[in-house]
Amino acid sequence: MVTKIVSIGNSKGIRIPSAILKQCNITDTVELEIHLGAIVIKPIKHDYRVGWGEAFKLMSKRGQDKLILDESIDAEFNDWEW
After folding, report:
1. Cβ atoms within 10 Å of 7's Cβ, excluding its own
2. Residue 52 belongs to domain spanning
3. 5 assigned to some structural domain
4. Is residue 27 a part of any domain in this protein?
5. What is the SS3 string spanning 16-76?
6. Model's pTM, two decimal places?
7. Per residue in 24-66, pLDDT tens?
8. Would 39 be classed as within a structural domain?
9. What is the number of structural domains in the chain?
10. What residues contact residue 12 under an 8 Å CB cut-off, 6+ apart?
11. Does residue 1 form part of some domain?
């Protein structure tokens, strides 16, 4: 694909078609690298669960890992209306 460089304030940029962004799983943040004289754009993969294991261990140690809902509540939701 050939595209033109456009002015964006004091910088330059390119327009990337949304189909390409979707195919590469690019949403809002990317990593730019220069590799063998070429610009490489990579999506940043967010790991939102980083640190959860340690947090759960600390909760258990503090006794904060008890059930919030009473076990007598119908877990199958048979009597619930939706």
Report:
1. 8
2. 17-66
3. no
4. yes
5. CCHHHHHHCCCCCCEEEEEECCEEEEEECCCCCCCCHHHHHHHHHHCCCCCCCCCCCCCCC
6. 0.50
7. 989 888 999 999 999 999 998 877 788 899 999 999 999 988 8
8. yes
9. 1
10. 5, 6
11. no
